[in-house]
Design brief:
By secondary structure, the chain is α/β, with parallel strands linked by helices. It has helices at residues 2-5, 37-42, 53-60, 79-90, 97-110, 118-126, 135-138, 141-150, 154-168, 181-185, 199-212, 219-235, 257-273; strands spanning 24-25, 67-72, 93-96, 173-178, 191-196, 248-251. The chain binds 2'-deoxycytidine-5'-monophosphate.
C-alpha cells in the first residue's frame, strides 16, 4: 500500500474542496471548568481550578496570560489547514505537533538508529528544535510511518509534550494541532476544537489531492491507510486520540473549508471577546 501511495501528501493543503456545513459542540464551553494556560504548565497539565471560562478569560485580559488554541483530530481531517489559518488570522504562533514526532523519527532514521529503543528515541526527542521543523521534508510517508512507531513510546511523548507546552506559552498566543493537545498537552486551553470527518471523506480528499497533483492513487489503499492510522492513534495506551470533554466537535465531512474556518473563528472570537 505504501508503494502505491508513494509519498504522503498532506490533505490539509487542499483548498476549496469540502462541501456544505455541519457542526455541533460536544459541550457548552461556558459551563466547563478551566484554568489559565500558565497554570496548566505549572501543574504539569493535570490540574483544573474549577473557574469558568468567563472568569479565566477575564483573568487573562491585560495580563501576561495568552491565548492557547488546541486543535485535535484524526489524520487528514483538515485540522492543520484550520490551525494555520487561525494562527495567521490572530497573529498567533502555530505548532503542528505531528512534526515534532516526525522530526524525532527522521533524526533516528538519518543516524541509522533503531526505532524500537525507547531510551535512544527519547534522547533524540529531547534534541528536536521546534524552530527548525521543515514540513516539506517531514511530510514524507516513510517518516510518518516511523513517527507513528515512536509516538507510542511514553518517554518520547513526555519529552515532546514538555517542548510543546513551552511553545504554548508563546505570546501573544499559540495554536497547537495534533492528537492530544486538548487532552494532555494543554488540557486547560481556553479554546479546544476537535476536527473530524468520516474515514471515507478523508480518504477521498487525500485521493483527490494526489490525483490533482498529477500522481496516481488507489482509493481503496488510501481508505485502508486512513483506517489503520485511526486505529493506531485511537488505540494506543498513552494519550490516545479522543475529543476532550469540553472540545467543540467540528465535523467537516460535509463542510467547506471556508465554513469550517468561519465556525472555528466564531468560537475563537467568542473566547477572546470574553476578555473585553
Ligand atoms: O499528524 P501527523 O501524521 O504528522 O503525525 C505523525 C505521527 O505522530 C502520527 O503517528 C500521530 C503522531 N502524533 C501524536 O501521537 N501526537 C500528536 N500530538 C501529533 C502526532
Amino acid at each position: 500500500m505504501e508503494g502505491i501511495i508513494g509519498i504522503e501528501i498532506d490533505i490539509e493543503t487542499i483548498d476549496g474542496k469540502w462541501k456544505v456545513s455541519q457542526n455541533r459542540p460536544l459541550a457548552d464551553r461556558q459551563a466547563s471548568p478551566k484554568a489559565s494556560g500558565r497554570s496548566i504548565l505549572r501543574n504539569g497539565g493535570s490540574g483544573r481550578t474549577g473557574a469558568s471560562l468567563q472568569q479565566i478569560t477575564k483573568d487573562r485580559a491585560g495580563t501576561e496570560e495568552d491565548m492557547i488554541i488546541a486543535i485535535d483530530g484524526p489524520a487528514a481531517a483538515g485540522k492543520g489547514t484550520l490551525a494555520r489559518r487561525i494562527a495567521e488570522t490572530y497573529g498567533f504562533h502555530h505548532l503542528d505537533t505531528g512534526l515534532t514526532y516526525r522530526a524525532t523519527a527522521k533524526a533516528l532514521l538519518d543516524a541509522g538508529l533503531p526505532l524500537d529503543d525507547e531510551t535512544i528515541a527519547e534522547g533524540m526527542a529531547r534534541k528536536v528544535d521546534l524552530a527548525g521543523l521543515d514540513r516539506t521534508i517531514l511530510s514524507r510517508h516513510e517518516i510518518g510511518e516511523a513517527a507513528s512507531k515512536i509516538a507510542v513510546m511514553p518517554a518520547v511523548r513526555r519529552a515532546l509534550v514538555e517542548a510543546q507546552r513551552r511553545f504554548a506559552e508563546k505570546k501573544p498566543g499559540a495554536v497547537l494541532d495534533g492528537r492530544d493537545i486538548g487532552t494532555v498537552v494543554c488540557p486547560d486551553a481556553p479554546v479546544k476544537l476537535y476536527v473530524t470527518a468520516s474515514a471515507e471523506v478523508r480518504a477521498q480528499r487525500r485521493y483527490e489531492e494526489i490525483v490533482d497533483a498529477g500522481g496516481s492513487a488507489d482509493y481503496d489503499a488510501i481508505f485502508e491507510d486512513v483506517k489503520r492510522r485511526d486505529e493506531r492513534d485511537m488505540g494506543r495506551t498513552d494519550s490516545p486520540l479522543k475529543p476532550a470533554e469540553d472540545a467543540y466537535l467540528l465535523d467537516t465531512s460535509e463542510m467547506s473549508i471556508e465554513a469550517a474556518f468561519q465556525k472555528a473563528k466564531s468560537i475563537v472570537d467568542a473566547a477572546l471577546s470574553r476578555n473585553a
